[in-house]
Specification:
Elements: H1 2-7, H2 21-25, H3 28-41, E1 49-55, E2 61-66, H4 69-86, H5 103-116, E3 121-125, H6 130-133, H7 136-144, H8 150-161, E4 164-166, E5 169-171, H9 184-204, E6 212-217, E7 220-225, H10 228-244, E8 255-258, H11 261-268, E9 277-280, E10 283-289, E11 295-301, H12 306-314, E12 324-325
Parallel strand pairs: 1-4
Antiparallel strand pairs: 1-2, 3-7, 3-8, 4-5, 6-7, 9-10, 10-11, 11-12
């Protein structure tokens, strides 16, 4: 728990208790011992979340739920324990929030697949209000497949069912995990692991005519296909699959497009179609040619995406990739 406290952001917003990292640190050993005692004797109670809003790129407001400092500590410790379990389960297509997994790895994977595999069609997908749409009862069933410790399961139940304080009122919803909680990214990852990743890998891909790949970071994902007919079939069944689990694809932000070597060759012909681009993780991906004339991808920061400017600040390694072609990641040299 002490390590969990040290891992928390010191400048993070306070929850309903208004306790900051600096204030808690003044008597950290005493505070952590008391918190530990409450966890052991069963008197620990999760506090309601504090609701704030941040602007989205379309002008709307994104709700963020901020837990109290002690809830953050316990959640951080729980995440460390659960990561040891789920890192064995999560597939390579998932790049969200786990150790050694991040947006840089997701972007590299997109470049590797499209530049090195026979990809012709991209499914650019967007899930409407994902964190708020997760069905808690289904999420609990998924977690119970791998976690049998009753204490951990009860803690997760407290965190996902706790209410939200907004304008002095306590609001309680029946779905969602409260985006902003330390535990939420992992829970959201677990949900999509079963709803999307595992299903796409074991059920969908064996039934397709050609190659197909998924790349996902948190709730942002794209699907890459060798044949358009495969992509059309998957889009149809994907909508039904998501509906079964309470999720909805955004009708305006979900689309199929021709992208890759063949699409670029068509656009280069006289009177050919305008080159198509797609967006992923705040970057616009553009099919083009390298100086040697080979197909490659340039990436550029999407316009009017303030939410992703924060992502850039948190992940500086993304910045050098702006407006540069994709290149294979260097192969690590063995220490032997």
């Amino acid at each position: 728990m002490h390590e969990a406290f040290q891992d928390l952001r010191k400048d993070a917003s306070a929850g309903v208790d208004r306790v900051t990292h600096t204030e808690y640190a003044k008597e950290v050993q005493k505070n952590l011992q008391q918190l530990h005692d409450r966890l052991k004797n069963g008197t620990y109670r999760a506090q309601p979340l504090r609701r704030i809003y941040i602007p989205k790129e379309d002008g709307r407001q994104r709700p963020i739920s901020i837990p109290s400092l002690e809830d953050k500590i316990v959640q951080r410790a729980a995440v460390d324990l659960l990561n040891a379990i789920y890192e064995q389960d999560f597939l390579d297509c998932s790049n969200g929030f786990g150790p050694g997994r991040g947006p840089q790895e997701a972007l590299d994977e997109v470049g590797r697949i499209i530049c090195l595999r026979p990809i012709s069609t991209i499914l650019e997908a967007d899930i409407q209000g994902y964190f708020d749409a997760i069905v808690r009862s289904l999420l609990a069933e998924m977690i119970e497949k791998r976690v049998c410790d009753g204490t951990i399961l009860r803690l997760i139940g407290k965190w996902i069912n706790v209410g939200v304080i907004e304008d002095g009122r306590l609001l309680v919803s029946e779905t969602g995990t409260g985006q902003g909680q330390v535990i939420s990214p992992l829970l959201a990852n677990i949900y999509l692991h079963y709803v999307l990743d595992e299903w796409f890998e074991t059920v969908v891909k064996p039934r397709l005519k050609g190659e197909a790949y998924e790349v996902r970071f948190a709730d942002d994902f794209i699907l890459c296909f060798q044949y358009r007919e495969d992509a059309e079939k998957v889009l149809d069944v994907l909508k039904k699959r998501f509906e079964k689990y309470g999720l909805t694809l955004h009708p305006d932000k979900t689309r199929l497009m021709e992208f890759g070597r063949k699409a670029l060759a068509k656009s280069e012909k006289p009177g050919g179609p305008k080159p198509v681009t797609f967006d992923f993780l705040g970057f616009t991906h553009i099919g083009t040619r390298s100086r040697k004339g080979k197909f490659t991808i340039h990436v550029a920061t999407m316009k009017k995406r303030p939410a992703y400017q924060q992502l850039l600040r948190r992940h500086p390694l993304l910045r050098p990739r702006l407006s540069r072609p994709w290149k294979p990641a260097p192969v690590p040299v063995s220490s032997a």
